[in-house]
Amino acid sequence: MASASLQFFAFILALFGVFGAIAATLLPNWKVNADVGSNIITAITQMQGLWMDCTWYSTGMFSCTLKYSVLSLPVYIQAARTTMVLSCILSAFGICITTVGMKCTKLGGDTDSKSHACFAGGVCFFLAGIFGLVPTSWYTREIISNFLDQTIPESSKHEPGGAVYTAFISAGFLLIAGVIFCTSCFKKQHGAWIYPPKQHHFPSAEQESNAGYNLKDYV
Questions:
Q1: Signal sequence: where (predicted)?
Q2: Residue 21 near residue 31, CB atoms below 8 Å
Q3: Could you tell me the pTM of the whole model?
Q4: Residues 127, 176 contacting (CB under 8 angstroms)
Q5: For labelling, which of 29, 47, 161, 179 has a CA lying 20 to 30 Å from the CA of 76?
Q6: Alpha helix stretches (DSSP H) within the chain
Q7: Distance CA 59, CA 37 (A)
Q8: 108: alpha, beta or left? (left if phi > 0; alpha if psi -120 to 50)
Q9: Average pLDDT over the chain, rounded to whole?
């Protein structure tokens, strides 16, 4: 019962991780630059994401421009696009597989099949967390290095936006969920290897007949 509750908790974490990864991939605020200038009425907030760049004016106007050209983008943005999409796909596969493999569901067949499905879903979650954590760390490193570079003007410097923090938290949820699913299945199999089932040996029919024949000789 404790293992089933732990799997359900990991499944909830994985759901948060999937939704967070999808939101972080689509949000435009991976980079944020607030340019107030001399007049706060004309303040501008510039945001850059993986797929579009947006500008928000203090007057209420909001405009976005899609990034159509892929080859003109920096390498870390191209890598972040690819790996974040892979993270979303793997985490979605993990949700489908673990739904079949969890103990609290009536899907997946016998216990061994459910255990294997649960382990496969945990691997998907773990890989999705890795794919979400690596590009986010690389993206954050580029933001910080550009911010600390003295040769870059202040108007071109950015800070990490909300999408970066969402991606970090989602990757952490997916990693924790993957470890819990894989560990729960591994413990069960490891216990079966340490304490193998006892085999009961029953005498054969031939031995019983021989024993009866020997008893008749003494009568």
A1: 1-24
A2: no
A3: 0.77
A4: no
A5: 179
A6: 2-26, 75-101, 111-148, 162-194, 205-217
A7: 14
A8: left
A9: 80
CB 117 within 8 Å of CB 72: no
Domain residue limits, the chain = 4-27+74-194
pLDDT tier, 27 (very low <50, low <70, confident <90, very high otherwise): very high
For strand 159-160 and strand 31-35, is the pairing parallel, antiparallel, or unpaired? antiparallel
Q: pLDDT for 30-69, tens place per residue?
A: 999 866 555 555 567 888 899 998 888 777 788 888 888 8
Local confidence band at 139 (pLDDT 50, 70, 90 cut-offs): very high
Higher pLDDT, 112 or 147: 147
Alpha carbons 137 and 168: distance in angstroms, whole number: 8
User: In sequence order, which residues have a C-beta less than 8 Å from that of residue 107 and are 6 or more positions away?
Assistant: 99, 100, 114
From the options 1.10.238.10, 1.20.1560.10, 1.20.140.150, 2.40.340.10, give the CATH code of 4-27+74-194.
Answer: 1.20.140.150
Tokens linked to 81: 């696009």
Give the integer Cα–Cα distance in Å for 28 and 30: 6
Measure CA 148 to chain center.
31
